[in-house]
Amino acid sequence: MIKYIEGGVCAAKGFRASGIHCGIRKNRTKRDIALIFSETRAHAAAVYTTNLVKGAPLTVTKQHIADGIAQAVICNSGNANTCNADGIVVAQKMAEITAAELGIDKEDVVVASTGVIGQPLDITPIKNGLPALKEALGDNNSEYAAEGIMTTDTVKKEIAVEFEIDGKLCRIGGIAKGQIVREIDALGGYTGIVTDASTLQFRMLNRSKGPAMWSPRAQCDRMKFSQYWREVLENTPNLNMWQDIATELIVEDGKAIGVKTQMNATFLAKCIIITAGTFLNGLMHVGKVMIEGGRTAEPAAKGLTESICKHGIRTMKLTPVPERCGEIVLPFVIAQRPVPVFDRIISELAV
Predict the structure, then answer these.
(1) Regarding the domain with residue range 3-178, which homologous superfamily does it belong to in the CATH classification?
(2) 149-161: per-residue pLDDT in tens?
């Protein structure tokens, strides 16, 4: 019989954890680095993303636990150390300084980072914070480590269970990050509901692992997805829509108060939210030819980037869209067509 207990990642004997603010995040009230330490070298395993774009810490961790052994996990929040030229070097350095502080082999350190993509990760705050992070290690500090890996999460996530196998008491515990769709749904958002309404195929990934590793994935009908979203938005009370291209940010006394559009319309508001996607000064690459534009038959958004930069906001290129290949050059004969599994996300998303 499984019994839920307190303790989180520290529930199992011999594990200690800590979490502090070291300076990666500007908000000093937010913990931004976590450490989990095992008193002895422990068996380790991991499941990795199949995405072609991977964070540098994943590459280093994959190398370090190739032997199936680890003794510490170091994870920062606020910066994902992904799509950076020096990402691998920084991740390796994180392992080295953590190992030196703990007196263990650097190959026994698992490295992780979560947060903003495309920004260089400064190793200095981590290095300066490690002595305090080590000093804070405790067998009742799982919640601090859970807070240290939070980014957009609003609630820390930890769990621990206790059970018997052949008369021996066993404990398993852990910490985790949330799934944003479920969080949006809990706040009254429509992402999960619209997904359910247009789903072609639903699968729960990683079912061969424990429930903590399960991840829902839905494939939607593009036309129905757009249609349902439009219906939802057009019927949302107190929501007005204007289709245009924003070209200028209106700023007074250092505060954004509105935007101007390509059609010379002006909108003033107490709060301005820019959801730019990939259209700001969008550039498409067709072979060696570069063409300004967004998706097919849609233009790039010009002007807004320059307006934003005038007010001291830095912009940069993030994850590029993967290249497309013509089907005539791909050997589909060696591919296997997946068997469709038609399902729906459980009703909790539609409540």
Answers:
(1) L-amino peptidase D-ALA esterase/amidase (3.60.70.12)
(2) 988 777 788 989 9
